[in-house]
Amino acid sequence: MSVDRNMRILVVDDAQTMRRIIVNLLRQLGFTNMTEADDGTTAWEKLNAEHIDMVISDWNMPKMTGIDLLKKVRESEKYKLTPFIMVTAEGKRENVIAAVQAGVSNYIVKPFNAATLKEKMTKVIGMF
Amino acid sequence: MSTFEHLSLSQRIAALEAAEHGDMIPAEQVRELVAAVKTMFGHQADKPNTTEKLYSELGELAKFINNAKKELQEVKGSTIAEEHLPNATNQLDAIVQMTEQATGRIMDECDRLTMFHTDLRERLIAMDPPLDPDALAGVDDAINQAAVSITHIFEACNFQDITGQRVQKVVRALQEIERQVLRMVVVFGLMENKDRLDAETAAELQEDAALLNGPQLNGQGLDQDEIDSILSKLL
To answer: Which of A18, A24, A114 sits opposite B161 (nearest CB)?
Structure first.
């Protein structure tokens, strides 16, 4: 089954630069349908307001962190199986374990490149 | 050698405490005890007062941090300094802002280049008479290579997010160090200057020391003038 390049991807990061980098890399990988949120709370509102096929989220954010957003997503019936990739500058072992326990689909440490993003996405949604 | 001499100081004191009213205590024993106590205190008196020394060093450290902040504030002549800087931590914040803006401009230009390439490709395909297929393939290949380079530029822009987060950590660490040092200065200052300070000033300073316990939020805690005022009272 081929990956739908028009899948709706929610990019969550409090840094606008980082959101723009991720969105651009996704565009380079052929994805066309991205939306953004600057913290977990806004992301959760977007998740409830529309259908999202995949979440790529930063860990450290004001209001609601990435790990808290992940927990909320996994608790919801609608999104409990939705691919969720965590992107963070802190590659701490305990954070990785906590994210895995919370149900993260994959984990990317910043800085990263398009090849890494593609590799992790392939593991989560299949070849594209 | 007296029988008292082989006992430790605490044993000698215990022996004297055990004596009952009317017991005769040899003058020699009392002299030995007094001599031992004098030796002990005399020895300590030769050392500098540790608390005073620590207070003095903390005071110097607080002054150093305070002066460093002022010096950073006084750096004039650059746009950054004039536009962004009330204090040292604000300068670091300004660095984050400026790199973010610069990164944004770099990415804007990358987006424009991508648009130019797309436009160029469409024009070449639409040319009449049509371009030689090999020539068109060559140009298309060059455009694809340029797109890869643009992606690499976007990847390199990761630096802004990473450095921004690191600078924020340094800012938080500096604020915490400053707060803790100042709190110690106030606490030691109250101890060292208790005879000099009137009750009202001491109470004010005690209140300030309590305020310095928690993390400072915008509009809360002490501002620079209040910090200067505390230092001027104590140092």
So the answer is: A18
